[in-house]
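Dear H.,

Thanks for agreeing to be a second pair of eyes. The structure we're designing against is below in token form, covering all 122 positions.
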């Protein structure tokens, strides 16, 4: 595993649990398989840059980000997530956000498929 990714498994699990998301929900949001998420959290994978960036974008949309430096790892939660924690609605808010991300991903995929179905006529 690359040195810069040595903490990736911990960061993914911290962010996921901070917003009370399951591995299945993270998989739905990123388009990765549940097995891929499990492998990433076990430190059994060396993901591509594209995969890491996709996960970061999903976490950002779910309201959590992470800052790592030499001394520590800090988790930053959005106001929406902090309010949900305070109100006891974190699971519901995360489920809504996951559904929104999943729908957006499906729309993007449908758009790509539509563009690829065109015929070239003479």
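And this is the sequence the design step returned. I haven't edited it by hand at all.
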């Amino acid at each position: 595993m690359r040195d810069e990714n040595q903490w990736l498994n911990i960061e993914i699990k911290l962010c996921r649990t901070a917003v009370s998301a399951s591995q299945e929900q993270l998989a739905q949001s990123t388009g990765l398989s549940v097995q891929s998420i499990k492998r990433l959290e076990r430190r059994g994978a060396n993901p591509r840059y594209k995969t890491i960036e996709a996960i970061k974008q999903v976490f950002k949309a779910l309201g959590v980000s992470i800052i790592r430096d030499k001394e520590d790892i800090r988790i930053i939660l959005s106001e929406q997530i902090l309010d949900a924690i305070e109100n006891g609605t974190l699971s519901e808010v995360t489920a809504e956000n996951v559904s929104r991300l999943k729908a957006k991903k499906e729309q993007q995929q449908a758009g790509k498929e539509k563009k690829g179905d065109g015929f070239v006529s003479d």
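Two observations from my side: The longest strand covers residues 64-68. The two ends are 51 Å apart (CA to CA).

Warmly,
E.
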